[in-house]
Design goal:
elongated; about 30% strand; alpha+beta; 11 helices; BirA Bifunctional Protein, domain 2; Rossmann fold; about 425 residues; five-stranded mixed beta sheet
Length: about 425
């Protein structure tokens, strides 16, 4: 993509009412546009990152036998009244509205109820189970405070998966697979080394639920980390869990963190509310056992920015960066450098390399500052000086290491 054609623009300052680092940097770098508190539009660069994160999540869900679907955002009041979660006294972050015929509906903030009701049409026998389905969908939550940028929005993109099992053993097996899948996801998006499986309150159906918490100074949660097991305990259950629940280590380290995913055992709560049962092999009637597994896609994007940025801007891991190479043209007066840079750009494109080509007619200093702000993993500079040396100057955005590579070395290295 030629940067002169890309719909984006960097800014020296973020909006004055923006206080979160992730939103400040993403706005300044041209990834998102703030519409109102907690509501952001994703511009072309931002959408590329969102899609890459979502694709990583999809691959892990698909690898574990889950099927993707897309449920409705508009939610039927009657469905939610069955579980008792329609009332504002129970769920206080609903967005609700009315249709032209005066029917009251809500904008979905999660989908346990709708999907359980849907499953009544498809689950009748033990042969129909297990079922594992997920979606990547926009959710709406009327947050009282929306000051954390895209880490806590009123409108956000989320992956939510739901499992339907015949018995506890089948459920537990899939639950453990999701722990591994989530760890794989966080490793692939570049924050695996600072993301901990965290024991949290389990509610009615299990001793614990599990969160995945990423350590960052912008964290809204406090966790206590066991460096031996690489697990953590949420502060909400710290009084009940004085030592690591895995190795009994009591030397837990307090850290601030952001929740980037969670998995819950739901038992038969929703199956009971919606009478979701099946005929078992012994011909008795049993209730389906459920689990839910969530990852906020846009929340994860904001967390990556908070955790990995530096004083000059964003530092994207290769797996989620909008482009792998930021090719910088520092033109000469006679156009020789530009012609050569065009050739290198075309060669990269033909090779299938994701490259953003800064062909804009602006000063070199502005281009370099924008490259640091945008945060693409590798910056490749072509100028009169590099052409005289017959090299391309390549800088690693993460480490700052600079290499001078011959053309073929550069082409082969990316």
């Amino acid at each position: 993509m030629r940067q002169s054609h890309l719909f984006t623009k960097t800014r020296k300052e973020a909006p004055k009412d923006e206080v979160s680092k992730n939103a400040e940097l993403l706005i300044r770098a041209g990834y998102i546009h703030k519409e109102m508190a907690g509501v952001y539009s994703f511009l072309p660069l931002g959408l590329r990152v969102v899609n890459k994160i979502a694709d990583i999540v999809r691959k892990e869900m698909n690898a574990n036998g889950a099927s993707e679907l897309l449920l409705t955002t508009l939610q039927d009041k009657n469905v939610w009244e069955k579980s008792g979660r329609w009332s504002d006294d129970v769920v206080d972050n609903w967005f609700k509205t009315k249709l032209k015929n005066d029917t009251e509906v809500g904008l979905g903030f999660t989908h346990e109820e709708e999907l359980t009701a849907l499953m009544k049409e498809y689950v009748r026998s033990w042969r129909d189970l297990p079922v594992h389905v997920y979606q990547v969908q926009t959710k709406f939550r009327n947050e009282a405070r929306a000051k954390s940028g895209i880490m806590r929005g009123r409108e956000f993109l989320m992956k939510d998966l739901y499992s339907f099992s015949k018995d506890q053993t089948e459920h537990d097996g899939f639950y453990e697979k999701m722990k591994v899948a989530y760890k794989n996801i966080y490793a692939k998006v570049g924050i695996g080394d600072r993301t901990y499986l965290t024991y949290a309150s389990g509610g009615t159906f299990s001793k614990y639920s599990h969160e995945f918490q990423t350590v960052t100074d912008a964290g809204e949660d406090v966790i206590f980390v066991c460096e031996k097991c690489k697990v953590a305990v949420n502060n909400e259950i710290r009084a009940d869990v004085p030592a690591c629940p895995v190795c009994t280590n009591a030397d837990l380290v307090e850290k601030k963190a952001v929740e980037v995913g969670n998995i819950f055992s739901l038992g038969t709560k929703y199956a009971d509310a919606f009478e979701l049962s099946f005929a078992s092999e012994d011909e008795s009637t049993k209730q389906v056992i459920m689990g839910s597994y969530g990852i906020g896609i846009t929340r994860l994007m904001g967390t990556i920015v908070e955790a990995l940025s530096d004083e000059n801007g964003i530092v994207w891991p290769e797996g989620v960066a909008p482009y792998v190479v930021h090719l910088i043209l520092v033109p000469d007066k006679n156009g020789v450098v530009k012609n050569y840079a065009n050739e290198i750009y075309n060669e990269l494109v033909e090779k299938g390399i994701e490259v953003l080509y800064d062909d804009r007619d602006v000063r070199a200093g502005e281009k370099f500052a924008d490259a640091d702000l945008i945060g693409i993993p590798f910056r490749a500079v072509i100028s009169e000086k590099t052409m005289q040396e017959a090299v391309i100057e390549v800088k690693n955005r993460k480490t700052g290491e600079v290499k001078k590579l011959r053309e073929q070395e550069f082409i082969d290295s990316v």
